[in-house]
Amino acid sequence: MWRLKDFIIKMMIKGGFIMYSKIQIKGVLEVKTGMHIGGSSAFSAIGAVDSPVIKDIRTNNPMIPGSSLKGKMRTLLARKYNDVVQANANKDADCIKRVFGSSEKDEKGVIKQSRVLVSDMFMINGDEIRNRGISGFTEVKFENSINRATAVAMPRQIERAIKGLKFGIDIIYEAEQGKEAEIEEDIALIVESMKMLEYDYLGGNGSRGYGKVEFSELKAEAVIGKVDDNILANVNKLLDEM
Questions:
Q1: Which pLDDT tens digit goes with each residue over 81-116?
Q2: CB-based contact 155:142 (threshold 8 Å)
Q3: Per residue in 124-157, pLDDT tens?
């Protein structure tokens, strides 16, 4: 069945019937300071961590939801490209909506779909961390907030993914037929958001030093349809500059 499907796809590509192409960007996201992306604490026992991190249900290891990364990338771009602070993402600058989409219908009644699909990210260096003699992939940090009126401390326990964890990145960019000229511009915008994120934070409590991350080993390839070799080379040059 899969061989037949592959054959059909190849014939469609050869005949020029593929209406768009897909570029896959793979790479590594490394946690440089403890990172907290919250999970559910609905069933926490008395004395347990107040704010746990989200975990992969199969391994119980920390994970990064694709929505967390994509949302942060869009937010950072909005700070730069929007004329004013917008609570409504549908009012973002056109360059942002072109890449990240909009749920608001245009004059033709069409909703603009996102060209970027960001998969959930899972740990890829667990064995390396264990070989350093570290048995756990999370840590618990005690935080205090002080009531200024009463001077009473309100302690809480926050779980964080530890420094040094690496997660595999898998981003799909969908290029529309006839709009090949926009590929480099769109991916340049994605790269810009990644660079901005390296000087910001991912997850919560960034002002307290949490969530510093770094991207590396980014590589793009066409996985569906055909992409001009020069365009793909320029895309990879952009990624190499990260």
A1: 998 777 778 889 999 999 999 888 777 777 889 999
A2: yes
A3: 999 999 999 998 999 998 776 676 777 666 667 8
